[in-house]
Amino acid sequence: MDRKNGRQYLAFGRSIDFCISNQLASAELRIAFQLLLMPLPQMSLDQWPNPEFAAIYHVRTLEQLHIVF
């Protein structure tokens, strides 16, 4: 991340309130994307310079996900 406070991202909490399942959740997402992309080798994520994120307090999520076929 290129934000000054990028390491203070709060999706999984911080300090004593840190989510103990954060590694599991990250691994599940990585595996899910790998499985989704496996049957379609010609499909890939598009590179766009300025992704827009939803203005949701407790979740950092993209407004759009650009996929190239």
Automatic annotation (TrEMBL):
<dbReference type="GO" id="GO:0016705">
    <property type="term" value="F:oxidoreductase activity, acting on paired donors, with incorporation or reduction of molecular oxygen"/>
</dbReference>
<dbReference type="InterPro" id="IPR036396">
    <property type="entry name" value="Cyt_P450_sf"/>
</dbReference>
<protein>
    <submittedName>
        <fullName>Uncharacterized protein</fullName>
    </submittedName>
</protein>
<dbReference type="GO" id="GO:0004497">
    <property type="term" value="F:monooxygenase activity"/>
</dbReference>
<dbReference type="GO" id="GO:0005506">
    <property type="term" value="F:iron ion binding"/>
</dbReference>
<dbReference type="GO" id="GO:0020037">
    <property type="term" value="F:heme binding"/>
</dbReference>
